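Box S1 | Example of a co-folding query
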Amino acid sequence: MKKFITFEGMDGAGKSTHLAWFAETLRQRGQDVVVTREPGGTALGEQLREILLHQTMAMDTEALLMFAARAEHIEQVIKPALLAGKVVISDRFSDASFAYQGAGRGMDWEKLKQLEAWLHGDMHPDLTVFFDVPVDVARLRLANNATLDRFEQEHGEFFERVRAGYHRRVQENPQRYAVIDAAQPLDKVTAQLGAILEAI
Ligand code: TYD
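Box S1 (continued) | Returned holo structure for thymidine-5'-diphosphate
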């Protein structure tokens, strides 16, 4: 059984809806599941989330705050839950920093790898479900949202880079990822997710 599972994808890919279904199905099968998210997941992390989502800042500041929130999240939530034998499902994790701060903003990939190595140690997700969707489809879905945060307000080219960043991560470590075609209708995506659930 894979214990540390992360969900990733562009804004508008639909991952949060599917994450709730995935967690609930695992619970019905008797698993003790902790659902959490990034940036956030702890009291301090949620405060950092507010700042990160709404305040303009330099690229390095943004990356460091993402990883600061993550350090707290790993120590306070993820490690203790895994040690207690629980399944942890996080709505985003370090892949998002590579996709958004790395590919999206242009921060050096190797610097992000150093931060990842420093803060993760040997703790990496056992499985990452990546919701892949063309940028125009994701943006169409976002158009229904009343308010958009600082990332969601970015332009199409930014999101093309974010998507390419996710693809680069998948290529660098393909065995960790399950890639979902999230452009499909809800029931089809749920079916893809169901197959992943059976596999783990
Ligand atoms: P998300 O939880 O998907 O927002 P929502 O509540 O709208 O579903 O993610 C918040 C934003 O943070 C998202 O636009 C991506 C961004 N983000 C980064 O840029 N880097 C990171 O490391 C993380 C974890 C998130």
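The helical segments are 15-28, 43-54, 59-83, 94-104, 109-120, 135-142, 156-172, 186-199. The chain is about 55% helix and 15% strand.
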